UniProtKB/TrEMBL annotation, chains A, B:
Keywords: Glycosyltransferase, Ligase, Phosphoprotein, Pyridine nucleotide biosynthesis, Transferase. InterPro entries: Aldolase_TIM, NAPRTase_C, NAPRTase_N, Nic_PRibTrfase-Fam, Nic_PRibTrfase_pncB, Nicotinate_pribotase-like_C. Pathway: Cofactor biosynthesis; NAD(+) biosynthesis; nicotinate D-ribonucleotide from nicotinate: step 1/1. Catalyzes the first step in the biosynthesis of NAD from nicotinic acid, the ATP-dependent synthesis of beta-nicotinate D-ribonucleotide from nicotinate and 5-phospho-D-ribose 1-phosphate. GO terms for molecular function: glycosyltransferase activity; nicotinate phosphoribosyltransferase activity. The lineage of its organism: Bacteria, Bacillati, Bacillota, Erysipelotrichia, Erysipelotrichales. Residues 10-134 form the Nicotinate phosphoribosyltransferase N-terminal domain. Transiently phosphorylated on a His residue during the reaction cycle. Phosphorylation strongly increases the affinity for substrates and increases the rate of nicotinate D-ribonucleotide production. Dephosphorylation regenerates the low-affinity form of the enzyme, leading to product release. Residues 363-472 form the Nicotinate phosphoribosyltransferase C-terminal domain. This is Nicotinate phosphoribosyltransferase. Its EC number is 6.3.4.21. The keyword Phosphoprotein applies.
Length: 481, 481
């Protein structure tokens, strides 16, 4: 069995059903509506997030179907009309969905996914759109922070045991790989998504044998290639590292294998890695690597490297798989327009919180790149029918401080929202995970380093087109009366 | 299809497989080992946690099976012998598992689940034991904190869209219900686990109609019972509440329905609920309830109630479903003994971190209750063969400060670890979710209020029996030489 084929149609907030029923009973099942997904701030006060989770959302939408069991369950709630239950039974997905491809750097307030379709449907899919994109974008973003902190040293994702549920582990490993991790401990993520799975030994292996030396020896005999020994079960420097050295010299080197690696999973990583490095070097094992895996995240890794801890790679668990310092990606899904007699009526939500005001209308997002440096200059949110012509100068302006204007020349404009479903038909071919990883790295390299900074990064420009800005301003004035 | 039946055998840390193969190749497949799951600290500096996730762990263990696809995948890694792959193909679960039942208050350092069995198996199941219990215990514990802060007012779980994956939402709702939430927005958790699902409307409902008044009217006509109207789409006090009052008076009251509820999802909850209450009362709608649902957790709820905000119930989303302030439950799984020639050899892990030292040997946990007050006095971890006789006085002592002793009389001793699997056979009947909820509430009521306190709760005693303490001290002395 493969998790990919699980029918999650009923993973839906109950209010999507009460509203759907309400639309149906009011004769509005053919009412067309437009929704945007966007988020309001980057986790960990970072400069950008990374889009992820689209492939799993596509799987969900492909399998949207109410089983007889579902209909029976809904009937038992004694809330819904038989007509509505029949509608659900015959449900055929018919929305248009556009989305920013996985691996793309994304920024607050821009639509990262848009939906147009019958309001019952467009509303119904809200829960899983948000769940899927929020979860994986959160982990891909966190993973990339940790990978950037490690500054070229490989990072492995080891968090399954502390993940928030099976999908948290399985898809978390996928998202972590998109963010730049080199592999995972989670075997099923390798089987189902080709995230390379790796693993060596736990403390229990060492404890099961009569001595640490014997445990290491048995392991090295069976796995002489990339042999990583866990050295902190009893005493890292007095017992673990000396026993590892002995085994590397007795078993690996005579047979022509590389002198392996040691893993330290407790104690002070800077102190122990320096002392261990010294012991290894004194034994002539200059090539033996040191792996650290004790409650790490980007903050600790940065600090360890500032202290010149001689660490070759990092295993990161709970703080990556749950994005511990900020475990929520706050993507929202808001109605932006309805159609009436074939005409689009833009909608806006005012709210008591200024930052919760939405951008009205059906939209596209353009990323403008400098032709010379290839760096991304700004994103511009336009109405869907607008085209940004990059053969002519284009003026961007701050939507709040409109006197802040800048004319852009010599640029490339690339639309970010790609068609995924049109009228319910899948029109998008998901790239392979490797392609996503490569693309993501390229796109992140096209951000100015000011945006990549961990502390107080430069706020990347996300502007509105003149036409969208005018529409929004008019609606705000109308509703504030 | 039902998520309960998904085969998650391959949701396993890869090192469980490399070690299993190592044991197999060293002729140790019949080696018996003992493991404990325990945790080291309560999230959010709380006084206790709540055990949850056992039923899903049982489902996983019942379905442990390597498919041909799994074997083929493992063969493709070119690491494992054919003999080992055949062993996996014929894998038959044969462990003994004891666990503390779901809903029980649990405390740091005591075994909450123990395993005895062939080391390959006992090791293999580590990942899912930890994942399942860690996740649901985390959410049940957080839910209970929020429910206690709400002090009798119903709390609903609304977090699916911000959950870390589908299981995070589905099983998170289950765990939240164990912790005391009255329901969830997550429909599938109702279908599969009987967690009552509830829901009303989103802002999009209000925006889809030509006016807020019309949106409310249509909704109230369809759902006159428990009619909850979302009042903050445009302007809570100037538009939302007045329109709700109008609709309650026009639609509900003439037909004899209760005058519903209003939900406020943005702005300052204390200010808006007080002003809204005043408007409702002035309109004679004293029975209309006020529901708040904007980024809540136990800290904000406590503060709102200190300010006498007239809130009748709380909807809690992302901060519950991810346990945002502390999104990791740090349960670990450690080897505590092996058998050699039929005799148990206790094992200990020393570690560079004192708090990571383990308790050796196969164990039981007794909870001692005062016969008069019914309150829990202390937990005592004993070796498995020990019995605490509650007809005689029993002396507990602090395992670190052994001069701190106390003789307990007039008490009931209840063993907490119950048999779940014996020799691989399921011997436990999972209680219904309702039974777990009732049992959990009873057990929490048996804790002193000092342990229930949010800030700096009293540290509940978890002591070692004299025999276990002596064994541990001897092993520590042996290994520190």
């Amino acid at each position: 069995m493969n998790l990919k084929s699980v029918n999650l149609t009923m993973l839906v907030d109950f209010y999507e059903l009460t509203m759907a029923h309400g639309y149906f009973e009011n004769g509005m099942e053919d009412q067309i509506a437009y929704f945007d997904m966007f988020f309001r701030r980057v986790p960990d006060e970072g400069g950008f997030a990374i889009m992820a989770g689209l492939e799993q959302l596509i799987e969900y939408l492909k399998h949207l179907e109410f089983t007889d069991e579902d209909i029976e369950y809904l009937r038992s709630k004694q809330l819904f009309s038989e007509g509505f239950l029949t509608y659900l039974k015959n449900f055929k997905f018919a929305c248009d969905i556009y989305a920013i491809p996985e691996g793309t750097p994304i920024f607050p307030n821009e639509p990262i996914l848009t939906v147009r379709g019958p309001i019952i449907q467009a509303q119904f899919i809200e829960t899983m759109i948000l769940l899927s994109i929020n979860h994986q974008s959160l982990i891909a973003t966190k993973s990339n922070r940790i990978v950037r902190a490690a500054n070229g040293r490989p990072v492995l994702e080891l968090g399954a045991r502390r993940a928030q549920g099976a999908d948290g582990a399985i898809l978390g490993a996928r998202a972590a790989y998109i963010g730049g991790c080199k592999g995972t401990a989670c075997t099923i993520s390798d089987r189902d998504f080709n995230v390379p799975a790796l693993g060596t030994m736990a403390h229990s292996w060492v404890q099961t044998f009569d001595s640490e030396y014997e445990a290491f020896k048995k392991y090295a005999e069976l796995y002489p290639e990339n042999c990583t020994l866990l050295v902190d079960t009893y005493n890292t420097l007095k017992s673990g590292v000396p026993n590892a050295i002995k085994v590397f010299k007795e078993i690996l080197i005579p047979k022509g294998y590389k002198p392996g690696a040691i893993r330290i999973d407790s104690g002070d990583a800077a102190y122990l890695s320096k002392k261990a490095r010294k012991l290894l070097d004194e034994a002539g094992l200059h090539e033996t690597k040191i792996v650290i895996s004790n409650s790490l995240d980007e903050y600790i890794i940065k600090d360890l490297l500032i202290q010149n801890a001689p660490i070759d790679s990092f295993g990161v668990g709970e703080r990556l798989i749950t994005s511990k310092t900020e475990p929520v990606f706050g993507g929202v899904y808001k109605i932006v327009a309805v159609e009436k007699e074939g005409q689009m009526i833009p909608k806006i939500k005012i709210s008591n919180n200024i930052e919760k005001i939405t951008n009205p209308g059906s939209k596209q997002v353009y990323r403008l790149y400098d032709r010379d440096t290839q760096k991304a200059i700004a994103d511009v949110i336009t109405l869907a029918h607008e085209k940004i012509d990059d053969t002519k100068p284009y003026t961007i302006f701050d939507p709040e401080h409109t006197w802040k204007r800048k004319e852009i020349t010599n640029f490339i404009a690339r639309p970010l929202l790609a068609p995924i479903f049109l009228n319910g038909e899948l029109v998008y071919t998901s790239p392979t995970l490797e392609e996503i990883v490569t693309y993501s790295k390229e796109q992140i390299d096209m951000l100015w380093e000011e945006v990549l900074r961990f502390e107080k990064p430069h706020r990347y420009y996300v502007d509105l087109s003149e036409e969208l800005w005018t529409l929004k301003t008019e609606l705000l004035e109308k509703y504030s009366k």
